[in-house]
Amino acid sequence: MEKNVLGDELTPCSDELSTGFTRSGCCETHTQDRGRHELCAVVTQGFLEFSRKKGNDLVTPRPELDFPGLHPGDRWCLCVPRWKEAKDADVAPPVVLEATNEAVLDEIPLETLREHAHEDGRQD
Questions:
Q1: What is the DSSP string of the chain?
Q2: A Pfam family matched by this chain, by name (predicted)?
């Protein structure tokens, strides 16, 4: 059982979209995942534009990859390095702490994640 950054059981990032490296809906760790799709975020328009400019178009659907295209407000497992780049550019999308894998703590301090936490009424 993988844990989230709060030390609890990792919850799904999305029940609606097949996200994560293995498309399980969870931001799990995987030895073959070089991008580290371990951080669950609620994507924003600013982040989607930033990602497109960096060469990763997350908006355009790619049916051949079972990728529907993202819209602002969608939850998605992001690559840890890309989220850090977005934070440095002041366009980091909010983080869903209960669905973000504890593995990201080796790159991003919990305090930073809390500063960018998504406020959705759920208890942390």
A1: --BBTTSSBPPPS-SSS--STTSSSS----TT-TT-EEEEEE--HHHHHHHHHTT---SS-BGGGTB----TT-EEEEEHHHHHHHHHTT-PPPB-GGGSBGGGGGTS-HHHHHHTB--SS---
A2: DUF2237
Quote the pTM value.
0.92
**Domains recognised in the chain with CATH numbers:** 1-118 (3.30.56.110)
Which pLDDT tens digits describe the chain residue by residue (124 residues)? 899 999 999 999 998 888 999 999 999 999 999 999 999 999 999 999 999 999 999 999 998 887 889 999 999 999 999 999 999 999 999 999 999 999 999 999 999 999 999 986 443 3
Q: How far apart are CA 104 and CA 100, in angstroms?
A: 8
